[in-house]
Amino acid sequence: MSATTAVEMPEIGATGLTPKEVVQRIESGQSNAVKTSSSRSVQDIVRANVFTLFNGIIFAAMVLVLITGSWRDAVFGFVIIINTGIGIVTELRAKRTLDRLSILVASDFLVHRDGRDVEVPHNEIVLDDLLWIRAGEQVPADGQIIQTWGLELDESMLTGESRTVRHKVGEQVYSGATAVSGMALVKVNAVGSHSYAATLTAQAKVYKKTVSDLNKGINTILKFMTFLVVPLCILLILSQIHTVGGWGTALSTGEWRQAVVSAVAGVVGMIPEGLVLLTSLNFAVAAMRLARHNTLVQELESVETLARVDALNLDKTGTITDGGIAFNRLVMLDSANAAAEQAATQALYDCCNEEQPNGTGQAVLAGLKAQGYGAGAVESRVPFSSARKWSAVRKSGETWYMGAPEVIISALEGDYSSVLQQVNEYANDGNRVLLVARSTAPLSEGSCRQKRLRDAVEGANVSDGPQLDVQAEPVALVLCSEKIREDAERTLAWFREQGVRCRVISGDNPVTVGAIARRVKLTGDHEPVAMDARELPEDVNELARVLENVDVLGRVLPDQKKAIVKALHTQNHVVAMTGDGVNDALAIKEADLGIAMGNAAPATKAVAQVVLVDSKFSHLPDVVARGRQVMANMERVASLFLVKTVYSALISLGVVLTQIPYPYLPRHITYIGALTIGMPAFILALAPNTRRYIPGFLKRVVTFALPGGIATALSVLLAAWVLPPVMGWNVTGDATDLSALRATSAIILFAMGVFVLARVARPLNGWRGVLVAVFAAAGVIGAFVPFVANFFALILPTGATMVATLIALAGSALIFALCLWLAPLVRGLTGKLSRRH
């Protein structure tokens, strides 16, 4: 409970709600309880990850193979379990985070009911309650102030404004704000889901799946393959039944099983199952690496989004600044000697050295302690009050005042406009300015009655309290500023070099924010353009045009932050948004990538995809670099997987059209794919790569994969068409001859896979060359290991078959070289034709 509980509460005239009225409101649902609804049910999450297009195709193919009894040819089905498990675990983590979302701190609050003050839990506050808001408490419900004793609120978590706000009678206060000082009696006018904080929470809790360009590309491939898979699978089964003598023979001899297995070999080859699995695993590995640097990735797909970011919106407080105040220096107003400056500095220290100094006082004390100052002898003191805006000490026959310049100067006789001008100049440069004044008159303590009330509730009616001496003279200005993070300037420089446009969006005064942007060199050597958000247009397209020429925005409301993100989206920008307050939550959710600081509000952290646990802005370059590594490498390995899709589709088509037995088994493609695609791809995916992502993933991948896929398909089909008549093989009636053809086809497939791997892994100097050599050797050695050879049906050719295989391999190499040579010519010709049209 707050320390103010023991304070004698001021007397008020109202009696508050009666117990009967309270019960009526609770029964009618007008209490402060908020129904906690789950973001997405476990059932929905499981259903979404299990019943996918990819899983359906693989599962159906696996069932068909298992029906035939050939379980060794069904090992490809394990990828469903692994990939689905990763997806479910990831989304369950996000669900738990969202379900715990709460902006308000649950505790007991003091309400005035039936003529007396009683403590009630947060959920039992009802509509029309008379609620006490005391220093140190978070406002639990929206209300209107009916009496105030110097209430001052920190609304930074709601508005982004770092300065505290003093409220008057009749003004509205919102749930989620924190009382810094003073006290007020508030009539509650919005509770539960209707309160401001609950409204923000409800909007933030709506589940939003991160859109992954990589996953979109893979899904496009899967959708395209679906149109081919079903009819092609049926045609493959029919063609394989035909090769064994028709349905009657197939059913009587059991050859239908081999026909189904052969058909599935074509289907499975067309599905880049390893790519789907590797994408999830690579995202997970990147997330684990970032976690070691105190960066929590809450949605795996967001790692890829990092690579595409070209617009970064930064909240000032908590991102560029750490939310604290730093003492800069003391500026003497008149030419003074060292002794006068030392006396003023010591007086400043003593004025701030209260029992419970506020944030600015603590910053001044810390700064002066670092200069060697300590507590001096003080005869009497008037502590700082947010109502008075000044404090004072009496020492050595002099009275020293310290506080807000405009308040102190307004109470003095004489013209001090030049001092106020200096104050404004320093303030426009981003400083918080205090004034130190000196007087020889005794310190005014105020009346005993006011002193007692001030002790109980700080800052009531200042006209009856301590008074400033009108003859006091301004001596010095105290310059403080928000503490800028040490890493802010170099981090912003890195983003400029990488072509990422950074903007500072804050609820603070645009002049103050602009000054801080200059200090951290937001726009390098150029002066940042600052603007008051109250002048922004409401039309989203007009807003987008204005934003192109603005670097700093101040006085930004939460809805405006969200609108700014939407406006940038209209210009096809990939937007990242950082923040720590509740006022940032909606914009962070709207952005392509939401980044929250570790000390952020729970609502903000819950909706962000990335959380910088130790709140260090300097982690962002690492985060972006990791995303670029993932995306650039996944584009490389996606090309590798798609080659298999292309040649499997073309081989299946060739088999159907020419009615020949399928030239290899599903287990062959499992073995070859693992050594030339799956395992090498995983290693390549983890290699260093800082290339910035460029849109057009799918087009580049398809363009790269077509030559290798076409060359591989032609090589296998030509061998299947030419070798049987040349070698005298009866592949439709003799199982041994069919096995010989499949052994040769598997060797050709493996050799072409090594060629494609070498092309993808370029340059082959260093470890990349070793990678290709190791997996090529592993494939050959595996064929000599009895268990491996038996399990995957690998047969080493001998005699005439060996000669034929070597000739086929030479032909395959020529076809591969020819396809690579023709590919750029075809692309160039296609480009010219498209430009003409």
UniProtKB/TrEMBL annotation:
GO MF terms, alphabetically ordered: ATP binding; ATP hydrolysis activity
Topology in membrane: Multi-pass membrane protein
Residues that span the membrane, as ranges: 45-68, 74-92, 221-241, 261-285, 637-657, 669-689, 701-723, 739-758, 770-796, 802-826
UniProt KW keywords: Membrane, Translocase, Transmembrane, Transmembrane helix
Chief place where the protein resides: membrane
PANTHER family xrefs: CALCIUM-TRANSPORTING ATPASE
Gene Ontology terms: cellular component: plasma membrane
Domain named P-type ATPase A: residues: 110-203
Cell location: Cell membrane
Primary gene name: ctpE
Protein name: Probable cation-transporting ATPase
Pfam families documented for this protein: E1-E2_ATPase, Hydrolase
Entry-linked InterPro entries: ATPase_P-typ_cyto_dom_N, ATPase_P-typ_P_site, ATPase_P-typ_TM_dom_sf, ATPase_P-typ_transduc_dom_A_sf, ATPase_P-type_domA, HAD-like_sf, HAD_sf, P_typ_ATPase
